[in-house]
Amino acid sequence: MNTEEFLTLQEIVVAAKRNLPPGPWAYLIGGAETETTVRRNRHALDSIAFRPRVLRDVSRIDSTWTFLGQKVRLPVMLAPIGGLESIAEGGAATAARAAAQFGVPQMLSSVCKPGLEETAAAAKTVRSFQLYVRGDDAWVDDFVKRAMDNGFTSFCMTVDVASYSRRERDLIGRYVKPWRAKAQEGANFQSGLSWDQVKRFKDKHDLPLILKGIATAEDAKLAVKHGVEVVYVSNHGGRQLDHGLGSVAVVPGILKAVGKKAEVWVDGGFMRGSDVVKAIALGAKAVGIGRLTGLGLAAGGAPGLVRALEILEDEIRICLGLLGVTSLAELDPSYVTAAPAVSLPDTFSAFPLM
Ligand SMILES: Cc1cc2nc3c(=O)[nH]c(=O)nc-3n(C[C@H](O)[C@H](O)[C@H](O)COP(=O)(O)O)c2cc1C
Fold first, then answer.
1. d(Cα 156, Cα 49) in Å, to the nearest integer?
2. Which amino acids are annotated catalytic?
3. Whole-angstrom distance, CA of residue 339 vs CA of residue 174
């Protein structure tokens, strides 16, 4: 199917499932253990309703945004995905091409092929680099240098992987992920990570630091105390600690703790334009899309992801107009309110017509 023919995100999900072998499919969509956190991510988004305003002139809508000072087409970032090469030919480089063509930032995972230099060379996009700390200080510093040399303008440490979780879909399917073998070598560094390394990074490097995997106001306060520029609220898409809260549910408390001292970003369960609008209304400054990135790529490579982003943009623009605002900047928490979710949440509950 020509990717132009996809009219809905639902069709993209169906095509992705058709195209992927069972192992990579399970890896992409799965979560940890009972997948309660996965479902809570959706449940938290579904538990927010809109409060639309009417009779305002919304004939011109602007859905552009800034990402750490750089202009982007949507407040959406491709979240880091390890092993993307198992989901789409060309892996991270293919994602970079889609990000550049559409105009959103890509956060590149350190466990993704073809790696930092080749991915940066593949396309000119707004670049952020995400590191799993699996080596000593010199090892980290080498990544920082390579990232800066290759035009990455911010650096992210993922901090919610002190131990690797039990992803039962992968275990049951006997799916062996080639990139996991190497991870074992650095596992001790990852589990030994502490605020000392955050302090060391901030003392040594002059690059905005993002901490990905913050889930409490207490840790958000510590992040701010350490001078971190971005508190990235995430539970790894429910792929790490099971029985966590839905990501978007903790955003208001974290925003309160952080104040204006850092930006707050969020990911986890974002599948629709209306989901993105909810997070921005609450006060988040960027939304990461993980599985949706993989689904777009699996459905049709770079053009498939571009098409997914176009549909997401269409949904966002329609949502803004129906809320009575002409730009994302006009949103504030008065446009949302708590409401009971009406469907049972799961990874695909945002696509009920599938
Ligand atoms: C297949 C897959 C691989 C991932 N790999 C990484 C990774 O290498 N580094 C990281 O920080 N997060 C990783 N994540 C987590 C995402 O960056 C993001 O936090 C999560 O996917 C957001 O939830 P969503 O998938 O519901 O959008 C991965 C997620 C998926 C789905």
1. 31
2. 236
3. 40
